[in-house]
Structure of Flavodoxin:
Amino acid sequence: MSKIGIFYGSASGVTQSVAMKIRKRLGQDICDLYNMEEDFDDVDDMLKYDFLLFGCSTWGAGEVQSDWRDPLFEMSVDKPDFSGKTIALFGAGDCVDHGEHFVSALGTLYDDFTKYGATLVGAIPTDGYTYKNSFAERDGTLVGLAFDEVNESGKTQGRLDTWIEVIRAHFPSAEGEAQTEAA
Ligand SMILES: Cc1cc2nc3c(=O)[nH]c(=O)nc-3n(C[C@H](O)[C@H](O)[C@H](O)COP(=O)(O)O)c2cc1C
């Protein structure tokens, strides 16, 4: 069975926690987890997989979490080929104090990886979200799973459940493993 590579950058552990839940839900055995800070060497780590999940919180004013900066720069030079690869995105943000740039890092990842040929799945309706502006909003959807543990922690589990069902249709899944277990 094809494996899924989950690559995430997380400064205070919020996106990391969701990355671990996603892995549990899709199947521990078929998901390899990479912390961009500790486990990522170069883009070849990603190109081993046909199915990829990228997690990134937003910092600064709409910028990617710092562990993503160098990898994205290196990719802009190397222009890797992600054609034929299916990707989905997730990341933490703050829709109140940073509502002008809510989860905007996901928009940056979307632009970069689709530019390199990847196919995105797992965009979600903006219904239920409140923010002023987001670079991750495209055509009335957010390009990935957005969650806000600062202001809306009670919504994260439901948002994750809904999103997992959306991406499950496009990603390999370990039958029977933790399918119904609360994350
Ligand atoms: C200095 C600072 C800047 C931030 N900038 C943004 C931002 O531009 N957009 C956003 O949605 N959230 C922003 N946030 C909120 C973080 O994304 C949020 O705290 C998130 O939970 C961090 O997730 P992590 O632990 O996975 O890195 C910012 C937080 C801080 C402290």
